[in-house]
From TrEMBL, chains A, B:
Coiled coil: none annotated. This is DSD1 family PLP-dependent enzyme. The keyword Transit peptide does not apply. Its cofactor is Mg(2+); pyridoxal 5'-phosphate. One of its GO terms (biological process) is D-serine catabolic process. It comes from the Bacteria. Belongs to the DSD1 family. Residues 275-360 form the D-serine dehydratase-like domain. The keyword Lyase applies. Keywords: Lyase, Pyridoxal phosphate.
């Protein structure tokens, strides 16, 4: 790090106090992160399911290594370049929970399978043939899962017959191993109440059950059923059907997950700790308004406004590209004050930053590169 | 570029056809960009005002160099790290159109003034003293402008007396040159009709006029009045008050500027060409739905959905982090098809990508790094 310059290149150095960090910066509270990772690892173990956390959320090899050390079986990714970034950083088991159809990307994926255990999802028979041909070229093997649409109406096959046909195609394709079923329903994760998520889960399960029955009837062993997110994992873990959880947000949490409720109406995020913050600074107090330096380029807006932590009565009222409008009715904020914000949506917010500032007790412990930042292709 | 690997590191190589570019990627149509740059340069020259395009929009030294070659007097930036990135890339005149209050950032800014002509805005007297002290330490000079709140209710002083007091403080502070007045009203740029923007401009001008009169009455020469954006620049250019325009979006345009109207009710973007696209690829066609690979990590959502170009009847219906839902009533899309999307909001969308793929006639001409991407602090 000696050739990096704090400020321009990195927002802090180890040993700095939080009030020295150059803002806006992405802060990771290590105590909270470690507690979240331990809690989910224990829950998965208790339920007898594997945990394969989603790397698309944090995009950080450092966070992934903590998750692996706590017993995760591997990592999920969404993009080939994301998987490449994690494999280059030393991760050895990645599942691309997505369809990869571009010839160049398929080639990269088959090549990557020579360096790590690599899986991918399909919902199209021609895609199976293309993946197989690439693996033959590279002399590698890909683990291929059939994605089933369990209610999100996005990707995935619709009927048990289609799932069986694709599984057979994978089984008979050289260079491919049939890995099982991808059954993730993203749309239910942020439904506001436990009852709504439970109902959506039951509908999702009702779409999965006949697929698994058809595979069994066809004599096709299904090694893995993988899915689940931070809003639904308890249902999948208890179902006896899913064998692997893909939760991502649990490690950091965000303001949007803070708005949904768990069983009994309790706040879902009371079970977890906010480990991710955008550190902002008050940069203008003209006319009694407080304006901070964190706007749309420091956190994304599609899941609502960030929450202010540790400043009683202060709220974040509005975004522009580089500014945030704060409401401070008691007028306590001073020019230069630093403020912890809980971003609305952790995944795309992590993707904005080159570095995570890992802190403990208000002191910077490490600078973590956001390994797969911008790896969208 | 020989040690970069197309795919993982960069989305394309010069000479590739557009249908080989790894998606999602940020495309810049060079013919459209050059036309936009030439048109605004000519308009500013005809109006007798200087043009200082806003670098926060594109964050690209390559685009900035084209703007400078067309007669721009310098570049605007919003952040110290952004200004540092542009100066490192060879730009020699940058104005930070923002307040910089953090001691470490002030120090970096004063140091940067030893490498380029650097300006900054203030709305606070203590900030003037801090900037001056830093310039004395580094033996440099900063050009300091008084920001006036002309109606956005964000940063900037409120009254003519405050403006005069700050201008005097700057004039008497060693290491600082009084550069004039920053008068930018961002909130009016995207008002939907010409009449609404004109009314907002008149209110903005009504706040500026007494400030300029008070400065004159106090015997303070005001070398520059700078402001204006892509939605309002015609008003500022014709006012006889503003001496410099700060437009940014005109170079690329976006879907949101396409929704507002110019004089006579014509589309504002009919005067400009869309030069910025997110190239996406159809990755799933399960159940008759087309899903593409460009979601929230390829373009931001706060200004509405992207527009599909060149695919009749196809519309972009919804986002998730890595997916876009397309509506294709005629069922013409095929797996692997590439689609040009006009993003909703150019500024934060450019900030998501590491590279711009500069194309002409469907062939890649160059890969441009997004010089100041992520330079938020």
């Amino acid at each position: 790090m000696e050739n990096l310059e704090p400020g321009y290149d990195i927002p802090a150095l180890p040993g700095w106090r939080e009030d020295q960090v150059q803002t806006p910066a992405l802060l990771v509270d290590l105590d909270a992160l470690e507690a979240n990772i331990a809690r989910m690892a224990a829950a998965a173990q208790a339920a007898g399911v594997a945990l394969r956390p989603h790397g698309k959320m944090h995009k950080s090899a450092d966070v992934a290594r903590l998750q692996m050390a706590a017993g995760a079986v591997g990592l999920c990714c969404q993009k080939v370049s994301e998987a490449e970034a994690f494999v280059r950083a030393g991760l050895r088991d990645v599942l691309v929970t997505n369809q990869i159809v571009d010839p160049a990307k398929i080639d990269r994926l088959a090549r990557l399978a020579g360096m790590a255990a690599v899986g991918v999802c399909v919902d199209n028979a021609a895609n199976v043939a293309d993946l197989s041909a690439a693996c033959l070229r590279h002399g590698t093997t890909l683990r291929v899962l059939v994605e089933v649409d369990t209610g999100q109406a996005r990707c995935g096959v619709d009927t048990p017959d289609q799932a069986v046909a694709l599984a057979r195609a994978i089984q008979s394709a050289p260079g491919l191993d049939f890995g099982g079923v991808q059954a993730y329903q993203g749309a239910m994760q942020h439904l506001p109440t436990h009852a709504e998520r439970q109902a959506a889960f039951q509908a999702s399960q009702a779409r999965l059950v006949p697929v698994l029955a058809a595979l069994q009837a066809a004599g096709i062993a299904c090694p893995t059923v993988t899915g689940g997110g931070t809003g639904s994992w308890g249902f999948e873990a208890a179902s006896g059907l899913w064998t692997e959880l893909q939760c991502g947000s649990y490690a950091f949490m965000d303001a949007d997950y803070g708005r949904i409720t768990g069983a009994g109406g309790s706040r879902l995020d009371a079970e977890w700790q906010n480990a991710l913050f955008v550190l902002a600074q008050v940069m203008s107090l003209s006319r009694g308004r407080a304006v901070c330096d964190a706007g749309l380029k420091a956190m994304t807006a599609e899941s609502g406004l960030p929450l202010v932590r540790g400043r009683e009565g202060v709220t974040y009222q509005g975004y522009s590209d580089e500014h945030g409008q704060l409401d401070d009715p008691a007028g306590r904020l001073r020019l230069g004050d630093r403020i912890r914000l809980v971003p609305g949506h952790c995944d795309p917010t992590c993707n904005l930053h080159d570095w995570m500032v890992a802190t403990r007790g208000g002191v910077v412990q490490a600078l973590w590169p956001v390994t797969a930042r911008g790896k969208v292709f």
